[in-house]
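Q: A reviewer asked whether we had any structural model of the full assembly, not just the individual parts. We don't, so I'm hoping you can provide one. Inputs are below.
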Amino acid sequence: MRVVLAEDLFLLRDGLTRTLREHGCEVVAVDNGPSLLQALLDEGAAAPDVAVVDVRLPPTFTDEGLQAALEARRRRPGLPVLVLSQYVEPLYANELLAGGEGAVGYLLKDRITDTEQFVDAVRRVAAGGTVMDPQVISRLVSRGDARGTIGSLTPRERDVLELMAEGRSNAAIANGLHISESAVAKHIASILTKLRISPSADDNRRVLAVLAYLEQ
Amino acid sequence: MRATPDTPRPAASSPAPSSPAPSGAAPSRAPTASRSRAAAWTSAWTAAWVALGRCQLASLHALAASAVGALVSLALLLVPVGVGLRLLPPAARALRRLSDRSRARAARWTGLRIDPPDPLPADRTAPARRQAGALLADDGFWRDLRWAWLEPVTGGLLVAVPPALVEYGVFGALVQPFVWRALGEGNWYAFVPVHSTATMLAALLLGLAFAAAGLLLAPAVLRGHARTGRPLLAPPRSTRLNRRIEHLTDTRSRAHDTLAAELRRLERDLHDGAQARLVALGMTLDRATRVLEADPATARELLLDVRRTSERALQDLRDLVRGIHPPVLADRGLGDAVKSLALDSFLDVHVDARLPGRFPAPVESAAYFAVSEALANAAKHAGAREVRITLTHGDGLLRVLVADDGRGGADPAKGTGLAGVAERLDTFDGTLALDSPQGGPTTVTMEIPCASSSPKTSSC
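A: Here is a predicted structure for the entire assembly that you could use as a starting point for your response.
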């Protein structure tokens, strides 16, 4: 798997490169916005399978990384992008999700400390899945809750919804909550009914549907 | 800070409340067009009559000013014989009441704000000689007197024109048709010799024209009167400069205090939060190293503990940074930062940001935290469901409007939140106007004078 990694801090860039290489990825590391965009638009053998991008990059040290990723996705729809940030910012999460194509992720930089989970997230995004940081999810969920939109969900259904929104498969959710897969399926069917979202077999689309509903 | 209909709003905020009106009237569809035109005609007609009445009132006021001015002059003349000493203070106070009323009227009638002079020296218990002496040394008193002598000549004559035109016109239109037969050859109306039916009709039309001209002129004359009165009524430049210096000294020292308090808070948060956690982390790591060989299971527990603590430390630092300067504000500027606030709010928030670009960082920051405070108030106290935020920039003013549909009754005197925001805006010569009648809705209008610094670079 070919990964384009954009991170301006040397220590982090080095650590991430090492981690990804240990897990058998081919890594192209860049440290600023323009070269990130260039690397993302490479064609042929050099074309990346997934991008791991820091929001804040030189030369402007604002949201250069996010802008480059969004621009690359405009030109190559569906290009998998995993954004790493020091902050949870629902506005950025929304912009990433806006296209509705999936293959995006938004994680806090803290999550890198669990390397297994981090590499798993990179793989899931590369495979077209959606990975949202639990903090993004809980903010969106608590907001929706206060508005009374998903107040009808049981606590267990909310647990399932949160894991589902993180992009987990049914098996992973069952594993995490120590319940059977059929119970998960039942909960999901119930959630989708309560949220009036027509059920779909597609993992990614159901996350997007949930997020889209919550951001209304 | 509540704006009642009768009192003028503070400083430059007066154009803001009127702005929703034209936007509401703008999308007039075909069936209602004639009705709205009729309504506009009626309101213009009413405004002209009101202006005419005000002209009349202002001219009477000018007469009163000249009378009181004469009284003050008389008192001055009588000072050498002693009676003037007793007469001067009350006469000066009466004159000040008149000039105050003129300033208030200029603001209420035309929106032209005239700064009042410093109050008259008023120690009524002091002996008459000392009171009169203080008055004679007061610059504002002499300016009042100058206004009292000049106003009847400059402003008074000006505002007398529209009522005179209307009265003469009404005389021509209503009286001339009946009196010309009795008066015969010698009867003139303006430049028309009225001695036949034809000339009588001409006089009638001329009278109507005079009346119409008087009505049409009245609003403009009223504005002109306020403008010509300003140099006479406003305090001298040196007074204005002194006030400005006082204001700046005041806001600067407050800004210093706020800054110092903020630094103290940061230091304390770092010391009690992240720093303490890092120390705990070091201690746990140390214990883990020592038991690593003997008891790997405990060491593993300790290391997991280290990871949890490091996550908490990161969380602390994140919250701290967000409190200082929110990341989106730094990255994208005010518009997107407010949109992000809206996304994060429990309420249904609609943001309409029409900003030309970025503003100086302190201004963006102040406006952002002000909006954040207003949103929090709408959620916590007003019980609002929907909030509309409008951000615009024009005439060198950044204008932020936060309107909710809550129950209203907000009072900056009760809470510290909005008062704190108003104080913060004051540092930038900004203003905060709160309109929140009982029962709602609440509108917070914030205005900060500033220029937009850079063209918008973000592609969103």
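A: Points you may want to mention in the reply: The mean pLDDT of chain B is 83. Chain B has three domains: 58-233, 273-324, 331-449.
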